[in-house]
Amino acid sequence: MSETINENVKGEPAMRAENGQVMLECRGLTRVYHEGPQDVTVLDGLDLEVRAGERVAVVGSSGSGKTTLLNLLGGLDRPSGGSVRIAGQLLADLGEAQLGRFRNRQIGFVYQFHHLLAEFTARENAALPLIIRGHARRDAERRAGEILDQVGMAARGEHKPGELSGGERQRVAIARALITDPSLMLMDEPTGNLDQSTAANILALMDELASNSACAFVVVTHDTSLAAHQDRVLRLGNGRLSAG
Ligand SMILES: Nc1ncnc2c1ncn2[C@@H]1O[C@H](COP(=O)(O)OP(=O)(O)OP(=O)(O)O)[C@@H](O)[C@H]1O
């Protein structure tokens, strides 16, 4: 497919975000794994809509398909059927390289284990998505400084992940996810490896970020207090989502 067809892949999102607009839309999303002795249908015609500024928790038992769903929403895997649309862009219309660029610009990922690069400072880690995007290193690191300030980590910008606490690393991971001003934030157990009071700090930070942004949040968690804190709780079971 020609690069020129998808203007948003080159620069702007297809849709300008306004709170209340649908930012993420899945229709009939299906994923069947063909590996192993028999086919496994994990997602089976799942529908989901998340609006700009809205936070949705997805809960479900082990093996219900939460990771599968996040991978599809994040463009890390392709569905067997159905569609994912983010900020107006149908992911199926993007080739692999375009999808990579779209992911870098429009989607922020935060995982239970932060995946920060050990040899880089907090500031360099947070700046990375902008550097990948082609920004000058100096500008990217200046912006990283601002965003680290926003997550309460301004004073630790020159420290490497090994010199930070678990909660501090998670804040850096959140800063890194936020730096491109994504349309969709995908969080997989963002408080999973943190003690209660650090988790509460991260929760408060998420509140603040969500109220100041038009991003849609999808948070996969087993943590009932984190789930209850979101605008809606959806339960994944039998390949579909229902009100939790
Ligand atoms: N590549 C694969 N091939 C075959 N089956 C797979 C593959 N990946 C996942 N599955 C199966 O799909 C189902 C859903 O897996 P998934 O990892 O999405 O669940 P989950 O809800 O994230 O689980 P958990 O909470 O335990 O992490 C499981 O039954 C799993 O065994």
How would you describe the overall organization of this protein?
- This is Lipoprotein-releasing system ATP-binding protein.
- GO terms for molecular function: ATP binding; ATP hydrolysis activity; transmembrane transporter activity.
- Residues 24-244 form the ABC transporter domain.
- This protein has eight helices and ten strands.
- By secondary structure, the protein is of the alpha/beta class.
- It has a single domain (23-243), classed as P-loop containing nucleotide triphosphate hydrolases (Rossmann fold, 3-Layer(aba) Sandwich), CATH 3.40.50.300.
- Strands 6-7-8-3-9-10 form a six-stranded mixed β-sheet.
- The longest helix has 16 residues, at 196-211.
- The radius of gyration is 18 Å and the shape is globular.
- Adenosine-5'-triphosphate (ATP) binds at residues 33, 35-36, 40, 42, 60, 62-68.
